[in-house]
Input
Amino acid sequence: MANVNVKVMMFGGRRCGKTSVLAAMQSCFEKVFGRSNLTISAADEDTLFTIEEKNREIKGYFHNQGRSREFTPDSNPTLEIMEYRFNIGLKNKTDKNKTGDGIVVDFIDYPGEWLADREKVKKIMPLIKQCHVIIIAIDSPHLMEQTHSDEEDAVGEFNDARNYSYRIGEWVKREFSAESDLSAKMILFVPLKCEKYYHHRQMAMLNKKVKKAYATTLNFFENNGQSYEVAITPILTCGAEDKGVEFSRFARDDEGEIILDPKFHTPQKAIYIFTERMVEPKPLYCEQPMIYVLAYVLEMVRKRKQDERDADGILGSIWRSIQEKFFNLPSAKDFARERDNIKKAMKKTDNGYEIVNNPLNF
Ligand SMILES: Nc1nc2c(ncn2[C@@H]2O[C@H](COP(=O)(O)OP(=O)(O)OP(=O)(O)O)[C@@H](O)[C@H]2O)c(=O)[nH]1
Ligand SMILES: [Mg+2]
Output
């Protein structure tokens, strides 16, 4: 099998949580892979280092102090385009990565600040087209707070300035429309920092607001149903239970007005509070975006192997089976089995989860 290289792009505004999604996925690897036949390894030091640093940062919010402690998470912005590479294999099969032949997943991460810079945007655009999976990180409090009506799907006034919902939608539509490769793509909407809404049983409302904020993008995917697998998969990196750490408020001045960042026109400070003593994060659902990516990757590999087999003809496919057995190489069936296992671990409903478009039958 030739190399299968799946490219995943992290999308989202500044300080939304792009790098955190990546880090959270990595720290949950064990949970996902411990019980499967898959192996995954970071292909380079930069990947490991950045991810460990981001995980340490989240742990750093926690220490043995009482409740009502406040903090503003806003550290370690990404400074350059980064590409994180992972190799994937099957534990009970020959590792072909050593020969440069195997499954490679690249995650592309960039500074969200770039979306506000015309020149930098030009660097990001060509990448969208190359990517098979797009993960859109959403800063939930900016979507959920400061709405001007009680409608369930009313969107917060700072959403667009923070999450770039409208612009991201336009870019994705434009770049994907110009696309000639018809193989299915996957888009994951990943709301972060949603502890408060989990505690207040408002995850269904969060789901509605995501759909409203990204309505034109979702319409585009729906109208091209066969090409796009689309899901909403919220994660809680700090963690849940009934209480804990959650968004409290946007900082205000003496007149009671929300203090705005002069450059970005978003609240300068989002204040989070510990409503209960918590000594460590209790992440929830963090493995889900990775599970979705893997289900996608395995489906692509299975399809590729099936196509190769179909192209072989009868004699060729018998010869291939003999080779697979003799060299202990993974077959289309092996990948289909792993995909089915991974699919069992997928969360698809409740607490804001929804598969909006499902051509891959997840
Ligand atoms: N409370 C809370 N904070 C979070 C969560 N996820 C991320 N954060 C914090 O939010 C801040 C921004 O997260 P990043 O992952 O660095 O955001 P980013 O989109 O990569 O930001 P740029 O690199 O600047 O584009 C960090 O300080 C994180 O620790 C979450 O689920 N809950
Ligand atoms: Mg980042």
Q: What stands out?
A: The domain at 4-64+76-239+295-357 is CATH 3.40.50.300 (Rossmann fold).
